[in-house]
Design goal:
It is a single chain. Helix 5 crosses helix 6. The chain is elongated. The protein is built from seven helices and 14 strands. A hairpin with a 3-residue loop joins strand 3 and strand 4. It starts with a helix and ends with a strand. The strands form three sheets. It has a five-stranded mixed β-sheet with strand order 1-10-9-6-7. The chain has about 280 residues and is of the alpha+beta class. The chain has two domains: about 160 residues, Immunoglobulin-like (Sandwich); about 110 residues, OmpA-like domain (60s Ribosomal Protein L30, Chain: A, 2-Layer Sandwich).
Length: about 280
Protein backbone atom coordinates (compact mmCIF):
# COMPACT_ATOMS: atom_id res chain seq x y z
CA UNK A 1 0.00 0.00 0.00
CA UNK A 2 2.81 2.38 0.94
CA UNK A 3 4.64 1.57 -2.31
CA UNK A 4 1.50 2.36 -4.32
CA UNK A 5 1.07 5.66 -2.48
CA UNK A 6 4.67 6.65 -3.18
CA UNK A 7 4.17 5.76 -6.85
CA UNK A 8 1.05 7.92 -7.07
CA UNK A 9 2.86 10.84 -5.42
CA UNK A 10 5.77 10.43 -7.83
CA UNK A 11 3.48 10.32 -10.86
CA UNK A 12 1.66 13.43 -9.66
CA UNK A 13 4.98 15.18 -8.98
CA UNK A 14 6.37 14.36 -12.42
CA UNK A 15 3.15 15.36 -14.20
CA UNK A 16 3.00 18.67 -12.39
CA UNK A 17 6.67 19.37 -12.96
CA UNK A 18 6.25 18.89 -16.71
CA UNK A 19 3.62 21.62 -16.77
CA UNK A 20 5.61 24.13 -14.74
CA UNK A 21 8.73 26.14 -15.36
CA UNK A 22 11.22 25.29 -12.62
CA UNK A 23 13.64 27.64 -10.88
CA UNK A 24 16.47 25.40 -9.68
CA UNK A 25 19.14 26.14 -7.10
CA UNK A 26 22.02 23.68 -6.90
CA UNK A 27 25.78 23.93 -6.44
CA UNK A 28 27.78 23.00 -9.50
CA UNK A 29 30.43 20.29 -9.20
CA UNK A 30 33.10 22.96 -8.77
CA UNK A 31 31.02 24.83 -6.16
CA UNK A 32 29.96 21.75 -4.21
CA UNK A 33 31.66 21.82 -0.84
CA UNK A 34 30.62 19.97 2.30
CA UNK A 35 31.77 21.59 5.54
CA UNK A 36 31.91 19.73 8.86
CA UNK A 37 31.80 21.46 12.25
CA UNK A 38 32.70 18.81 14.80
CA UNK A 39 32.64 18.64 18.58
CA UNK A 40 31.68 16.10 21.23
CA UNK A 41 28.38 17.96 21.62
CA UNK A 42 27.22 18.04 17.99
CA UNK A 43 28.22 17.26 14.41
CA UNK A 44 27.09 19.71 11.75
CA UNK A 45 27.53 18.88 8.05
CA UNK A 46 26.46 21.64 5.68
CA UNK A 47 26.52 22.74 2.05
CA UNK A 48 26.10 26.25 0.66
CA UNK A 49 23.50 26.39 -2.10
CA UNK A 50 24.45 29.38 -4.30
CA UNK A 51 21.87 32.18 -4.47
CA UNK A 52 19.54 30.34 -2.10
CA UNK A 53 20.94 29.43 1.30
CA UNK A 54 22.36 26.52 3.28
CA UNK A 55 21.43 22.87 3.74
CA UNK A 56 22.51 21.46 7.10
CA UNK A 57 22.57 18.04 8.72
CA UNK A 58 22.74 18.36 12.52
CA UNK A 59 23.41 15.41 14.82
CA UNK A 60 23.32 16.48 18.45
CA UNK A 61 24.54 14.26 21.25
CA UNK A 62 21.79 12.02 22.56
CA UNK A 63 19.36 12.50 19.67
CA UNK A 64 18.93 11.43 16.06
CA UNK A 65 20.13 13.59 13.13
CA UNK A 66 17.88 16.17 11.47
CA UNK A 67 18.19 18.22 8.28
CA UNK A 68 17.26 21.89 7.83
CA UNK A 69 17.09 23.89 4.60
CA UNK A 70 17.72 27.55 5.44
CA UNK A 71 17.03 30.27 2.84
CA UNK A 72 19.35 33.26 3.04
CA UNK A 73 16.51 35.69 2.46
CA UNK A 74 13.83 35.91 5.13
CA UNK A 75 11.14 34.58 2.83
CA UNK A 76 8.94 31.88 4.29
CA UNK A 77 8.10 28.94 2.05
CA UNK A 78 4.32 29.24 2.22
CA UNK A 79 3.40 25.97 0.54
CA UNK A 80 4.07 22.38 1.43
CA UNK A 81 7.24 21.03 -0.10
CA UNK A 82 7.97 17.59 -1.53
CA UNK A 83 11.32 15.93 -0.89
CA UNK A 84 12.51 13.61 -3.64
CA UNK A 85 15.78 11.94 -4.61
CA UNK A 86 16.98 12.58 -8.15
CA UNK A 87 19.88 11.23 -10.15
CA UNK A 88 22.92 13.48 -10.25
CA UNK A 89 23.99 14.79 -13.68
CA UNK A 90 26.53 11.96 -13.95
CA UNK A 91 23.91 9.24 -13.26
CA UNK A 92 21.77 9.00 -16.42
CA UNK A 93 18.88 6.57 -16.38
CA UNK A 94 18.33 6.41 -12.60
CA UNK A 95 14.71 7.09 -11.70
CA UNK A 96 13.53 9.71 -9.24
CA UNK A 97 12.14 8.43 -5.93
CA UNK A 98 9.96 10.14 -3.34
CA UNK A 99 10.98 10.58 0.30
CA UNK A 100 7.88 12.50 1.40
CA UNK A 101 6.14 15.84 2.06
CA UNK A 102 7.26 18.65 4.37
CA UNK A 103 5.32 21.42 6.08
CA UNK A 104 5.76 25.03 4.92
CA UNK A 105 7.72 27.49 7.04
CA UNK A 106 10.61 29.94 7.34
CA UNK A 107 12.89 26.92 6.97
CA UNK A 108 12.22 23.37 5.82
CA UNK A 109 12.97 20.81 8.51
CA UNK A 110 12.97 17.05 8.16
CA UNK A 111 12.56 14.34 10.75
CA UNK A 112 15.28 11.79 11.50
CA UNK A 113 13.87 9.25 9.02
CA UNK A 114 14.00 11.72 6.14
CA UNK A 115 17.49 12.89 7.16
CA UNK A 116 18.75 9.31 7.17
CA UNK A 117 17.35 8.67 3.70
CA UNK A 118 18.97 11.86 2.45
CA UNK A 119 22.36 10.84 3.80
CA UNK A 120 22.08 7.42 2.15
CA UNK A 121 21.11 8.94 -1.19
CA UNK A 122 24.01 11.41 -1.07
CA UNK A 123 26.40 8.58 -0.26
CA UNK A 124 25.10 6.79 -3.36
CA UNK A 125 25.88 9.90 -5.41
CA UNK A 126 22.27 11.06 -5.77
CA UNK A 127 20.70 14.45 -5.16
CA UNK A 128 18.00 15.08 -2.51
CA UNK A 129 15.75 17.79 -3.95
CA UNK A 130 13.09 19.97 -2.36
CA UNK A 131 10.28 21.14 -4.64
CA UNK A 132 7.66 23.82 -3.97
CA UNK A 133 4.92 24.78 -6.42
CA UNK A 134 3.95 28.39 -7.18
CA UNK A 135 6.98 29.79 -5.40
CA UNK A 136 6.46 33.36 -4.13
CA UNK A 137 2.97 33.34 -5.71
CA UNK A 138 4.37 32.83 -9.20
CA UNK A 139 3.55 30.09 -11.69
CA UNK A 140 7.05 28.67 -11.26
CA UNK A 141 8.16 25.68 -9.28
CA UNK A 142 11.04 26.07 -6.82
CA UNK A 143 13.62 23.27 -6.83
CA UNK A 144 16.46 23.26 -4.29
CA UNK A 145 18.91 20.39 -4.66
CA UNK A 146 21.89 19.16 -2.67
CA UNK A 147 24.92 18.14 -4.69
CA UNK A 148 26.61 14.82 -3.94
CA UNK A 149 29.91 15.99 -5.40
CA UNK A 150 32.70 15.76 -2.80
CA UNK A 151 30.27 14.28 -0.26
CA UNK A 152 31.92 10.96 0.60
CA UNK A 153 35.12 12.39 2.08
CA UNK A 154 33.13 14.77 4.29
CA UNK A 155 30.75 11.95 5.25
CA UNK A 156 33.62 9.80 6.53
CA UNK A 157 34.67 12.65 8.84
CA UNK A 158 31.03 13.17 9.86
CA UNK A 159 30.67 9.52 10.90
CA UNK A 160 33.87 9.79 12.95
CA UNK A 161 32.42 12.85 14.67
CA UNK A 162 29.12 11.06 15.43
CA UNK A 163 31.04 8.16 16.96
CA UNK A 164 32.67 10.58 19.41
CA UNK A 165 29.49 12.33 20.57
CA UNK A 166 28.60 12.40 24.25
CA UNK A 167 25.77 10.05 25.27
CA UNK A 168 23.49 13.02 26.10
CA UNK A 169 23.13 16.72 25.37
CA UNK A 170 22.71 19.59 27.83
CA UNK A 171 18.93 19.72 27.52
CA UNK A 172 18.71 16.06 28.51
CA UNK A 173 20.70 16.44 31.74
CA UNK A 174 20.12 20.05 32.79
CA UNK A 175 16.95 19.21 34.76
CA UNK A 176 16.60 15.86 36.51
CA UNK A 177 14.43 14.47 39.30
CA UNK A 178 15.23 11.17 41.01
CA UNK A 179 12.64 9.47 43.25
CA UNK A 180 12.83 7.64 46.57
CA UNK A 181 10.69 5.07 48.42
CA UNK A 182 8.94 6.10 51.66
CA UNK A 183 11.29 6.85 54.57
CA UNK A 184 14.34 5.98 52.40
CA UNK A 185 17.33 7.88 51.10
CA UNK A 186 19.53 5.19 49.57
CA UNK A 187 20.10 5.44 45.82
CA UNK A 188 18.50 2.92 43.50
CA UNK A 189 20.43 1.40 40.59
CA UNK A 190 18.41 3.57 38.17
CA UNK A 191 19.26 6.71 40.16
CA UNK A 192 22.96 5.83 40.23
CA UNK A 193 22.91 5.29 36.47
CA UNK A 194 21.28 8.69 35.93
CA UNK A 195 23.76 10.44 38.23
CA UNK A 196 26.66 8.75 36.43
CA UNK A 197 25.41 10.23 33.15
CA UNK A 198 25.11 13.69 34.72
CA UNK A 199 28.61 13.47 36.23
CA UNK A 200 30.09 12.33 32.93
CA UNK A 201 28.47 15.25 31.11
CA UNK A 202 29.53 17.84 33.71
CA UNK A 203 33.16 16.74 33.51
CA UNK A 204 33.09 17.04 29.70
CA UNK A 205 31.25 20.37 29.38
CA UNK A 206 33.43 23.06 30.94
CA UNK A 207 30.69 25.66 30.50
CA UNK A 208 28.68 24.07 33.32
CA UNK A 209 29.44 26.29 36.30
CA UNK A 210 27.03 25.21 39.04
CA UNK A 211 24.89 22.27 40.19
CA UNK A 212 21.90 22.80 42.47
CA UNK A 213 20.66 19.77 44.40
CA UNK A 214 17.34 20.07 46.24
CA UNK A 215 15.85 17.39 48.49
CA UNK A 216 12.10 16.98 49.04
CA UNK A 217 9.66 14.70 50.83
CA UNK A 218 5.98 13.92 50.77
CA UNK A 219 3.69 15.06 53.62
CA UNK A 220 3.44 11.72 55.39
CA UNK A 221 4.82 11.83 58.94
CA UNK A 222 6.05 14.70 61.09
CA UNK A 223 7.24 17.90 59.39
CA UNK A 224 10.65 17.97 61.10
CA UNK A 225 11.31 14.32 60.24
CA UNK A 226 10.38 15.03 56.63
CA UNK A 227 12.85 17.90 56.58
CA UNK A 228 15.61 15.63 57.88
CA UNK A 229 14.67 12.95 55.35
CA UNK A 230 14.90 15.43 52.46
CA UNK A 231 18.32 16.49 53.78
CA UNK A 232 19.58 12.91 53.82
CA UNK A 233 18.36 12.38 50.24
CA UNK A 234 20.01 15.54 48.92
CA UNK A 235 23.27 14.79 50.71
CA UNK A 236 23.33 11.24 49.35
CA UNK A 237 22.96 12.53 45.79
CA UNK A 238 25.69 15.11 46.36
CA UNK A 239 27.99 12.52 47.91
CA UNK A 240 27.61 10.19 44.93
CA UNK A 241 28.23 12.91 42.33
CA UNK A 242 31.38 14.01 44.17
CA UNK A 243 32.54 10.38 44.35
CA UNK A 244 32.24 10.30 40.56
CA UNK A 245 34.65 13.22 40.21
CA UNK A 246 32.32 16.24 40.19
CA UNK A 247 34.00 19.27 41.77
CA UNK A 248 32.32 19.74 45.16
CA UNK A 249 32.77 23.52 44.97
CA UNK A 250 30.30 23.58 42.06
CA UNK A 251 27.54 21.97 44.13
CA UNK A 252 24.92 23.72 46.23
CA UNK A 253 22.92 21.28 48.37
CA UNK A 254 19.56 22.31 49.82
CA UNK A 255 16.62 20.55 51.47
CA UNK A 256 13.00 21.59 51.87
CA UNK A 257 11.02 18.79 53.45
CA UNK A 258 7.38 18.78 52.32
CA UNK A 259 7.17 22.51 51.52
CA UNK A 260 7.33 22.34 47.71
CA UNK A 261 5.29 19.42 46.37
CA UNK A 262 5.09 19.10 42.58
CA UNK A 263 1.60 17.61 42.93
CA UNK A 264 -0.87 17.49 45.85
CA UNK A 265 -0.15 14.72 48.36
CA UNK A 266 -3.59 13.22 47.81
CA UNK A 267 -2.68 9.78 46.44
CA UNK A 268 0.02 7.14 46.59
CA UNK A 269 1.11 8.02 43.06
CA UNK A 270 1.38 11.72 43.87
CA UNK A 271 3.29 11.15 47.10
CA UNK A 272 5.79 9.03 45.15
CA UNK A 273 6.44 11.98 42.81
CA UNK A 274 7.05 14.31 45.75
CA UNK A 275 9.70 12.08 47.37
CA UNK A 276 12.42 13.39 45.14
CA UNK A 277 15.76 15.10 44.70
CA UNK A 278 16.11 17.53 41.82
CA UNK A 279 19.42 18.20 40.10
CA UNK A 280 19.74 21.41 38.07
CA UNK A 281 22.78 22.42 36.01
CA UNK A 282 23.64 26.03 35.23
CA UNK A 283 26.08 27.34 32.63
CA UNK A 284 28.34 30.39 32.64
Amino acid sequence: MLAKLRLLVLVAFCSLAMGLQAITFRASIDESKWVLEASKFECKLSQDIPAFGVGEFLHEAGVEPLFTLKPTQRLAIKRKAMLVVEASPWQPGIATSVIGPLEAGRTLKTNATYAGQMLVSLFKGMSPTFTVDKWMNSADQLRVALSAANFKAAYNDYISCVAGLLPANYRQVARTAVLFPPAAWTLSDATRERLELIAFYVKEDKSVSAIYIDGHSDSGGRRLLNRDLSKLRAEEVTRYLVSLGVDESMVTTRYHGERYPVVPNTSKKNRARNRRVTIRLDKN
